[in-house]
Write a structure and sequence with these properties.
It is a single chain. The protein has 339 residues and is α+β, with helices and mostly antiparallel strands. It folds into three domains: 116 residues, Beta-Lactamase (2-Layer Sandwich), CATH 3.30.450.260; 38 residues; 164 residues, Reverse transcriptase/Diguanylate cyclase domain (Alpha-Beta Plaits). The chain is 40% helix and 23% strand. It is built from eleven helices and 14 strands. The strands form three sheets. A six-stranded antiparallel β-sheet has the order 2-1-6-5-4-3, with helices on both faces. A six-stranded mixed β-sheet has the order 8-9-7-12-13-14, sandwiched between helices. A two-stranded antiparallel ribbon has the order 10-11. Strand 12, helix 11 and strand 13 form a beta-alpha-beta unit. The longest helix has 37 residues. The chain is rod-shaped and about 115 Å long. The N and C termini lie far apart (111 Å).
Length: 339
């Protein structure tokens, strides 16, 4: 027989309980006393502080003694916490060793436990360290993933954005047109070219030209809807895609507003940079099977016709004939091709 005093049992089994034959607590480990809180319940009935859930039917020492050596599942009456235990018979009573089982992580948090509250041989401490390490690693991985997702989003945005004006670029246009066609959405298409832009660059320099392009971008954004795509496709050329808008009169009004706005001189360091805009338009509904390249080519042809007609104008293109639209449209129709 090996006899251990309270101090030795406390180090070996910080969550032990010693019971006498009447079921009263004669000894309690420091960790278990910490969990129960308040005054150490020495001399009090074990079943006042604990209920045995498994095996079922244990309500007193008469039922507990025959269960010596069996695994116990208990509940702390004070807060409903779950514990696991093993009871062994001793001279004059029983010795029960308790643990938290799989609820150890929550128990450590709930009762503010530290490694000193566990036996030095208890692998639960190592498990807690591993959990903490894993948590730290997972948090760092989440942060890295968020940074990567953010970088990916930024890269994707940059890939379809014109760096100078902040508008969409040709790549964005090439992605959007097939989407609209595949979805069966009618749309209007404008090809815009700035008149006299070369003179601005030649007279006032490229800084002035950049300023003009940025101001044009702002004007196009103001005159279009949030759902429209406004793209700078190179130099002083822009394309506007207007989903759900195929009414020629409405498109004519928008084109005229753009022309009027861009005809206002733009200030650059006290110098007035005068430009205008020529516009070619086409509509997806005028094609039996709209094709992005064909529509862009037709809008470009209509743009050339506008320039040939005197600039600061807008003209529609018709794939089937070259007849002019009625005066209600307010804008001519052309099927010319750029020379």
């Amino acid at each position: 027989m090996v006899g251990l005093d309270h101090a030795s049992l406390s180090r070996l089994m910080p969550m032990y309980l010693a019971l006498n034959d009447d079921g009263r607590i004669t000894g309690i480990g420091p960790t278990l006393a910490k969990i129960i809180g308040g005054q150490v319940p020495l001399g009090q009935d074990f079943f006042r502080h604990f209920s045995v859930r498994r095996p079922a039917g244990i309500t007193g020492m008469a039922q507990l003694r025959p269960r010596a050596g069996q695994r116990l599942q208990l509940t702390l009456r004070i807060d409903g916490g779950n514990l696991r235990g093993l009871a062994m018979a001793t001279d004059g009573g029983m010795l029960i060793n308790l643990s938290f089982g799989i609820g150890i992580i929550e128990a450590v948090r709930q009762y503010s436990l530290t490694d000193s509250d566990f036996a030095v041989t208890d692998l639960a401490v190592e498990m807690l360290y591993l959990v903490e390490v894993k948590t730290a690693v997972m948090q760092e991985l989440r942060r890295v993933n968020l940074r990567l997702e953010g970088a990916k989003t930024v890269a994707e945005e940059q890939a379809i954005t014109d760096a100078l004006t902040g508008l969409r670029n040709r790549r964005a246009l090439e992605l959007r047109l097939p989407q609209l066609i595949a979805q069966g959405i009618d749309f209007g298409l404008m090809h815009i070219d700035l008149d006299y832009f070369k003179q601005v660059n030649d007279t006032f320099g490229h800084a002035a030209g950049d300023t003009v392009l940025r101001e044009v971008a702002k004007s196009l954004t103001i005159e279009t809807r949030a759902s429209d795509l406004v793209a700078r496709i190179g130099g002083d050329e822009f394309v506007v895609v207007l989903p759900g808008l195929s009414d020629t009169a409405r498109l004519a009004q928008i084109a005229q507003r753009i022309i009027d706005r861009l005809s206002t001189p733009i200030n650059f360091e006290g110098q007035r940079c005068a430009i205008s805009a020529s516009i070619g338009l086409t509509i997806s509904t005028r094609y039996a099977a709209p094709e992005p390249e064909r529509m862009l080519s037709d809008a470009d042809a209509a743009l050339y016709a506008s320039k040939h007609a005197g600039r600061a104008q807008a003209q529609f293109h018709q794939p089937t004939d070259s007849a002019r639209l009625s005066s209600a449209d307010g804008i001519a129709v052309a099927d010319g091709r750029r020379a």
